[in-house]
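Researcher: We plan to redesign the surface later, but first we want a full-length starting point. Tokens attached.
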């Protein structure tokens, strides 16, 4: 039982701790997903602002040509728009050879050439007119790390005429991401869907330019088409296991991931779990030690009871042995059955020798069971003692013996008494007991009464053994009972 309670308690604690862990994890997942959604919208908005201006430049140049006046006009308009675009480093236009046509940043050196840049090569070979978000580069004009956003420029024949380039400060993203507290191992990343890292709140060992294209996170985005979600995994960049939330842009091929270290995020839960287990452990220990103490106490009590019972048994048998040795019945003080048999044998022999009559009187309390049932056994004992006292009073001669024959049956040996005398004694005893008026509701007489059987005869003549006399008295007693109780019957008229 104790074990079952203990195991149930442990199981409940485990379920509670596990539920708490899942709740804590779910909360972190929700937080990371919401954060990544907000940051994706922010990145989208920054890119859109720069994209809008770059499209304006592209259209204007393609429509109005690459003349000096037009270039000047485009430069002025771009500069004016740049004032409100705080995250944009600037706008630059290069020709089909990669030489600068205009830039809002500052006058580039004469050697400036962008023809070796990836975005330049891309637009050169690809007719795609859309926006290209390139891998981070270090600006050749300012030395700043930037994200290049580029558009192809066509000439009037649709041939490659150069590139419009908008550059975004990576540091601005980094600064913004670092204002969000995700713990010392937390990380926010702006990533191109091809795996190119664009901006990260923590600088990875590989610097700015690295790819996470093999990340399981990108796999579920690009292969399974999950646009927003969460994942718990070990980062490829620093081997830290994190809870990631991510959201992709519907407008641009980018996504933002927000992540907290699982170890740090789950620390409060771990502390709670530790406390819960400690509490459970203490309660269990108290419970177990109480159960053990109770078990010991019960064992002690059980052993004590067994010892008492054994003592009681040996005392009872010792008393019984003493009683037999004393030849006296402990309750009534009359001779016991053993002594009765001896005395009867002795009386039988002596009266036989003298040719005298021997009478045996057997007395039985009427409805004694009902008496016990109604008044209780101790009252029954008391009543038996009173009946025995009456019996003793009527054993007037020294040879007369009074005895307890067994249970509620008493006996009287009257050596030398003939039937009539014995009957008279028996009747006197019956009358005296009735006169005691010991109430017995269970009897039709309303009082405790006796039925008495008397047997008489000359031993060796009328009977051969004491047992014959006892049997005759018993039969007479049976007749008295049958005749209605509270009466005396003798062996002569009993059959
Ligand atoms: N209190 C007490 N009762 C005893 C003692 N010895 C025997 N008895 C009870 O005496 C009753 C005898 O019941 P029965 O043999 O049915 O006889 P009865 O109820 O007297 O009915 P009849 O003899 O037919 O009138 C039993 O309930 C015994 O328990 C004793 O020493 N003390």
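Model: Full-length starting sequence:
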């Amino acid at each position: 039982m104790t074990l079952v309670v203990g195991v149930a308690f442990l199981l409940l604690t485990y379920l509670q701790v596990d539920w708490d862990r899942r709740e804590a994890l779910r909360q972190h997942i929700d937080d990371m997903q919401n954060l990544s959604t907000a940051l994706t919208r922010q990145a989208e908005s920054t890119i859109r602002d720069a994209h809008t201006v770059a499209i304006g430049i592209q259209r204007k140049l393609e429509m109005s040509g690459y003349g000096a006046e037009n270039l000047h006009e485009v430069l002025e308009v771009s500069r004016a728009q740049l004032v409100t675009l705080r995250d944009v480093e600037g706008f630059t236009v290069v020709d089909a050879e990669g030489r600068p046509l205009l830039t809002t940043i500052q006058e580039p050196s004469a050697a400036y050439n962008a023809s070796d840049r990836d975005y330049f090569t891309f637009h050169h070979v690809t007719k795609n007119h859309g926006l290209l978000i390139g891998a981070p580069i270090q600006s050749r004009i300012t030395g700043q790390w930037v994200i290049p956003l580029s558009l192809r420029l066509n000439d009037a024949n649709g041939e490659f005429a150069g590139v419009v380039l908008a550059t975004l400060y990576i540091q601005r993203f980094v600064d913004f991401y670092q204002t969000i507290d995700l713990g010392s191992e937390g990380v926010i990343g702006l990533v191109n869907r091809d795996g190119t890292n664009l901006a990260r709140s923590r600088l990875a060992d590989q610097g700015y330019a690295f790819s996470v294209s093999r990340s399981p996170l990108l796999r579920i985005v690009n292969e399974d088409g999950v646009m927003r979600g969460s994942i718990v995994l070990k980062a490829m960049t620093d081997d830290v296991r994190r809870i990631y939330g991510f959201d992709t842009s519907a407008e641009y091929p980018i996504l933002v991931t927000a992540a907290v270290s699982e170890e740090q995020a789950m620390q409060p839960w771990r502390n709670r779990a530790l406390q819960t287990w400690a509490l459970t452990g203490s309660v269990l220990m108290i419970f177990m030690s109480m159960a053990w103490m109770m078990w010991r106490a019960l064992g002690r009590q059980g052993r004590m009871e067994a010892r008492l019972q054994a003592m009681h048994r040996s005392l009872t048998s010792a008393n019984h042995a003493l009683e037999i040795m004393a030849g006296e019945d402990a309750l009534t003080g009359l001779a016991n059955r053993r002594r009765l048999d001896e005395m009867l044998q002795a009386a039988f022999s002596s009266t036989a020798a003298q040719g005298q009559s021997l009478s045996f009187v057997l007395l039985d309390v009427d409805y004694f069971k009902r008496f016990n049932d109604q008044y209780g056994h101790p009252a029954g004992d008391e009543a038996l003692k009173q009946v025995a006292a009456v019996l003793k009073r009527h054993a007037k001669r020294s040879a007369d013996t009074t005895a307890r024959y067994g249970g509620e049956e008493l006996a009287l040996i009257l050596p030398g008494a003939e039937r009539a005398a014995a009957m008279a004694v028996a009747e006197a005893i019956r009358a005296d007991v009735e006169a005691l008026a010991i109430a017995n509701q269970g009897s039709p007489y309303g009082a405790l009464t006796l039925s008495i059987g008397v047997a008489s005869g000359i031993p060796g003549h009328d009977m051969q053994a004491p047992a014959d006399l006892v049997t005759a008295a018993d039969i007479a007693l049976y007749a008295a009972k049958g005749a209605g109780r509270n009466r005396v019957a003798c062996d002569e008229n009993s059959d």
